[in-house]
Design a protein that fits this description.
alpha/beta, TIM Barrel, Rossmann fold, Immunoglobulin-like, 3 domains, ten-stranded mixed β-sheet, nine-stranded parallel β-sheet, 17 helices, 31 strands, 32% helix, globular, metal-binding
């Protein structure tokens, strides 16, 4: 890809006649679109009957777009296999946990592990790559579309056989599986791998190990499928490869993107939930570190289907989304979609043009964001996002554990977003990182909601602490083994040993009236909790239960110095307004101890994205909540858009407004 910012749309030229195509391209040029994504659902157009493959139309479309100065992301169409692959072949279809085979007509209806599906997917991908892989204007590839967005684990016969092979590769002997899963319970012991079932219908709940391991198996297999497609493309094309994923889907994004070239995702967060939008920017920036990420899909106004429609974005919000994304490290910002579908199940979905070719309610938003992108592009291309000093772990593996064990309907994505939003509101520049990420450059590490801590992660986090980092672990962290069983030596396994505490109880603390006290504040405690007694030298209580029956006097927050740093255990979640204040006080205290500099006093709803230039810093300040806000400039700066000099002190921003401030040096300390 060339060095520029991309502003794009998803387009389905195979659905429209020539007059509409010419109309669309002219309007794309008018609004500043410079990249288009095509082909993701077009398998039946490319191969209307088995082996009758013809890519001429798509070659011509890419060439036509290039002639008008518009680049192309080409997609593989494997999310929507054609009728000749589906009809009369239920063995090729996805099977849900009720044993129901999917029918033809939507998408993701085929099992991606079926051998015939894999063969045909490889063949159509090969033909596409051969036909368009070296065309001028082809700048990238997207594999499939939103893996596992509408389905989760498949329970077909193909998957059953692969499941047994996976188990044998993992455990070697059935005795080891029985031991690790504890299958003596409820007479679940197996005599061979072929006897291990899939987690389909059952009278009650499945063994936790079975349910969680099957999810991990499914995640590995979808990453394998992506790897096969990527390898085929690379035989014919040097353009980088991605997939439009999400933290909402049933995939392990860390595994999925290991074999891909750049990260991209889809997001349809509402304006009222802007934290759910920003958390994606702060996560996907780190998935392929050093390579800009893409927002491959977001709505120009609202999302919708035959059964639902969201609230249209308020005026100015989409521009704020685009500015925030580019400032936080995005190279591409793309809409779904260009022209409203006139048929199908997503007819009500927001678009740039209507089905009859006229501007929609979102059209003004697209124009505003386009102008902002043009204004910011030279400033952003001359700088790079600054690495945060605070990192928070995100784990799709943890999400699998919570799907198996949601307790009181806990949702991993919601838990993580709410926890993250506090860092956002506090003005702490932050990043979300996958479990396998390096910790270099960070000073504060937060790992909430990580039921199982792998030995590799534990070793890396311990080295981080010994070198001076502060690690806040919990809540709901470390209480399960990698097989989704309970530790039998300590409640939190090795984490507990390192913290120098003894977990006295683990129990559901909600509804017990338990109140904790820490940092001079009191708050009710909630969620499944662990409460402690410090036992080892250096371990001390930071937060104690003031009122809580048998747990009164025990600790719910502890810390222990290890090497140059500290390990902090948060065993219970402070809840309510008082709990929110306590958590923020905890974060602020340890942010201070860790020596975080990348922090501002931006008012809630306004963010600062710091970027590093050659000897200078840019602050991209964006109001995200529509209420306006302010931030204190730590030193004299320059408005990078107007060149006006600005004194140190308070700077206000209006509703969905953005400002770009240039500082000499690192922009962190008053000068």
């Amino acid at each position: 890809m060339s060095r520029k910012l991309y502003y794009g749309v998803a387009w389905y030229p195979e659905l429209w006649e020539e007059e509409a195509l010419a109309h669309d391209i002219a309007w794309m040029k008018e609004v500043g679109i410079n990249v288009v994504r095509i082909g993701e659902f077009a398998w039946s157009t490319m191969e209307p009957s088995e082996n009758a493959i013809d890519l001429t139309f798509f070659v011509q479309i890419i060439e036509r777009l290039h002639a008008h100065g518009i680049d192309t992301i080409m997609c593989t169409p494997t999310a929507t296999p054609p009728i000749w692959l589906s009809h009369g072949h239920p063995e090729r279809m996805h099977v849900n946990e009720r044993g129901e085979a999917m029918g033809h007509g939507s998408r993701q209806h085929a099992c991606t592990n079926n051998g015939y599906f894999r063969t045909r997917s490889a063949l159509i991908t090969k033909h596409i790559a051969e036909a368009v892989g070296n065309l001028p204007g082809l700048i990238g590839w997207q594999l499939d579309n939103e893996f596992k967005a509408h389905v989760s684990e498949c329970l077909c016969e193909s998957c059953l056989s692969l499941w047994h092979n996976w188990l044998e590769d993992r455990y070697g002997r059935i005795e080891r599986l029985n031991e690790n899963w504890g299958t003596a319970i409820w007479s679940q012991r197996y005599e061979s791998f072929e006897q291990v079932p899939q987690p389909g219908l059952a009278p009650f709940l499945h063994n936790a190990s079975l349910k969680t391991m099957y999810q991990l198996f499914s995640m590995e297999k979808i990453a394998e499928f992506a790897g096969e497609q990527a390898a085929m493309i690379r035989s014919y094309s040097a353009a980088p490869i991605t997939h439009n994923s999400s933290i909402a889907f049933h995939v392990d994004n860390e595994k999925l993107f290991q074999g891909l070239d750049f990260a991209s995702y889809d997001t349809y967060a509402s304006a009222s939930n802007y934290a759910a939008y920003l958390i994606n920017c702060d996560l996907w920036r780190t998935v392929k570190r050093g390579t800009p990420f893409w927002i491959m899909e977001t709505s120009p106004s609202f999302s919708g289907s035959l059964e639902s429609c969201s609230v249209p974005h308020p005026g100015g919000y989409v521009r704020a989304e685009a500015v925030a994304a580019y400032a936080l490290g995005a190279e591409g910002f793309c809409y779904w979609h260009w022209r409203q579908h006139r048929t199908g199940c997503e007819q009500p979905h927001g678009s740039v043009l209507s089905a009859w070719g006229k501007p929609t309610i979102g059209f003004k938003n697209v124009l505003e964001a386009s102008l902002a992108k043009e204004e910011l592009e030279p400033l952003l291309l001359a700088t790079v996002p600054m690495q945060a000093e605070a990192a928070m772990t995100y784990s799709d593996r943890a999400k699998a554990f919570f799907r198996t064990e949601p307790l009181r309907k806990l949702n991993y994505r919601g838990l993580v977003t709410e926890y993250y939003s506090r860092l956002l509101e506090m003005g702490i520049h932050r990043e979300l990182i996958m479990e396998g990420a390096e910790l270099r450059g960070y000073k504060l590490l937060l790992t909430p909601f990580l039921p199982s801590i792998s030995p590799v992660f534990l070793e890396r986090a311990l080295a981080f602490v010994r070198n001076g980092g502060i690690w806040i672990a919990g809540p709901l962290t470390g209480g399960r083994t990698e097989e989704h069983t309970i530790h039998t030596n300590e409640a939190l396994g090795q984490l507990e040993k390192l913290a120098g505490v003894e977990t006295v109880y683990t129990y559901p603390i909600d509804g017990t009236g338990t109140v904790g006290q820490a940092f001079g504040l009191s708050a009710s405690l909630g969620m499944w909790s662990a409460v402690f007694e410090p036992r080892e030298p250096g371990a001390k209580s930071i937060g104690k239960i003031r009122n809580g029956g048998v747990a009164a006097g025990l600790s719910f927050i502890t810390e222990r110095a290890i090497g140059k740093g500290k390990l902090v255990l948060l065993g219970s979640m402070p809840v309510g307004e008082d709990g929110d204040a306590m958590l923020k006080r905890l974060f602020a205290y340890y942010a201070g101890e860790a020596g975080l500099k990348l922090r501002t006093d931006a008012t809630s709803g306004t963010i600062v994205a710091p970027r590093q230039g050659d000897g200078y810093t840019l602050w991209v300040i964006v109001n995200m909540d529509g209420a306006g806000g302010s931030v204190t400039l730590p030193q004299e700066g320059t408005d990078a858009l107007t060149q006006a000099r600005l004194a140190a002190g308070q700077l206000t921003v209006g509703s969905y407004e953005y400002r770009i401030i240039r500082f000499a040096g690192d922009g962190c300390e008053p000068r």
